[in-house]
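Tokens for chain A. Residues wanted.
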């Protein structure tokens, strides 16, 4: 669980602390350093060892004796280690949260002075070992749907209150829905009763949902975004992006349209990383998969900046699993041909590969996509992937053997260089199938922390592999 302390750092000159700072001159700073953001956020958070990007000006092109200082948990300050000379520039610094750091302030200190302080919240690493999965049946959704979007947010005025959201989806007639429901997260990851809140202006299925907060962006408060999605039973895609504020009680405020996607999309990946919103792949008009990747900045009011085109996927892809870890976007499996939104057939173009792309810390552009030597246990589409703690859990979907749940869950370790460990089958005895949840595809999945800070995975809704068109209302967590 996140904690935050109000700690003010002293600001002595570098010369008083470190001999021979030596970073002024032609390559040095023009004046005292100024920090504008950390990780693209106004109230950044990260665990010990987490990547930190400090942005601003007058840092100097050479580190010399300059430092990034974090508030120490035991009092005072603790310097961060800058791994290589190229990670320190005049306008940005790449480092990691040092051991011994606590919640408080972050400053940059050079020979010309100490910068303004940015509030920083220390979070705990989310331990996540998905090798043994034991699912628990939670409070069922108000309605059986597939293709819903799901999101997690921390709300509350004086303390962090974790909430999960279930958004849209399609009913047994494949008709998109506009409903939005939320549930509070209790001890052990259990869900409270679902509460209906402000519906979407338009019924949607196969949309993507993300939450922007001051801890992951420049947004002034928690905003829920719903991007794209199918607008009819055939999955005709939309380019519309809706935004709504989240109340301290979890309720969703009024929806408004913000900058639309460059093209209509559904069944794609979306994530907020280092203050930017990324949209990856998906299906456009005619169910055609695309290679395109876009990035937009997030403003203080929740407005989206112009969409920029990023490095494209190597080939078209939709209906895949998606996540981010270690400054990389990750794509798992999916399909490279035109597949209808509700089609339950096993295509010959489904994929087993794992692709990832690094994010350039200064420009936020993607460095380029690469394939991991290790692949998923089977070629699969319309599944989900949840990433946390350096591991990924792949769940259900359409694959060879899906009718008997042969590979309901698999997992692997993710590495910062874009490779993965071998994918293995999870061995938990309480599977979703054994609990009566069926063999799922087109379901939703998210990861979240409970009030004690323990990590959980939640699977919601979905279609039934053995009876396509029979939608599920199940909610399963572990």
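Reply:
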């Amino acid at each position: 669980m996140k904690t935050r302390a109000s700690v003010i750092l002293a600001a002595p000159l570098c010369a008083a602390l470190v001999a021979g700072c030596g970073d002024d001159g032609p390559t040095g700073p023009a004046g005292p350093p100024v920090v504008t953001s950390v990780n693209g956020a106004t109230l950044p958070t990260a665990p010990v060892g987490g990547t930190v990007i400090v942005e601003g000006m007058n840092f100097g092109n050479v580190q010399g004796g300059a430092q990034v200082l974090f508030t120490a948990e035991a009092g005072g300050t603790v310097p961060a280690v800058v791994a290589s000379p190229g990670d320190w520039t005049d306008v940005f610094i790449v480092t990691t949260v040092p051991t011994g750091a606590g919640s408080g302030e972050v400053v940059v200190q050079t020979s010309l002075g100490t910068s303004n302080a940015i509030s920083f919240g220390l979070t705990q690493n989310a331990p996540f070992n998905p090798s043994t999965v034991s699912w628990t049946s939670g409070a069922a959704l108000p309605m059986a749907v597939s293709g819903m979007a799901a999101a997690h947010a921390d709300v509350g005025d004086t303390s962090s209150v974790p909430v999960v959201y279930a958004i849209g989806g399609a009913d047994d007639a494949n008709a998109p829905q506009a409903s939005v429901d939320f549930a509070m997260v209790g001890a052990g990851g259990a869900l409270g009763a679902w509460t209906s809140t402000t519906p979407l202006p338009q019924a949607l299925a196969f949309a993507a949902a993300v939450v922007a907060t001051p801890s992951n962006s420049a947004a002034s408060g928690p905003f829920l975004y719903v991007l794209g999605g199918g607008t009819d039973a055939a999955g005709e895609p939309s380019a519309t992006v809706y935004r709504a504020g989240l109340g301290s009680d979890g309720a969703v405020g009024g929806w408004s349209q913000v900058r639309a996607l460059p093209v209509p999309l559904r069944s794609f990946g979306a994530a907020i990383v280092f203050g930017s919103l990324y949209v990856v792949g998906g299906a456009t008009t005619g169910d055609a998969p695309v290679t395109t990747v876009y990035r937009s900045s997030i403003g203080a009011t929740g407005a989206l900046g112009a969409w920029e085109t990023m490095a494209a996927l190597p080939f078209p892809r939709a209906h895949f699993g998606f996540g981010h870890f270690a400054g990389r976007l990750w794509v798992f499996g999916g399909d490279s041909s035109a597949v209808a939104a509700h089609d339950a057939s096993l295509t010959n173009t489904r994929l087993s590969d794992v692709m990832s792309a690094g994010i350039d810390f200064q420009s936020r552009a993607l460095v380029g996509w690469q394939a991991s030597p290790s692949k998923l246990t089977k070629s699969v589409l319309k599944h989900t992937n949840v990433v946390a703690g350096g591991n990924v859990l792949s769940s259900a979907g359409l694959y060879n053997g899906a009718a008997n749940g042969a590979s309901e869950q698999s997992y692997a370790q993710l590495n910062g260089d874009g490779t993965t460990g071998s994918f293995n089958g999870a061995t938990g005895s309480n599977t979703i199938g054994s609990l009566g949840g069926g063999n799922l595809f087109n379901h939703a999945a998210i990861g979240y922390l409970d009030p004690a800070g323990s990590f959980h995975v939640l699977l919601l809704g979905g279609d039934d592999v053995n009876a396509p068109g029979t939608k599920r209302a199940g909610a399963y967590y572990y």
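The helical segments are 14-17. The chain has a mean pLDDT of 92.
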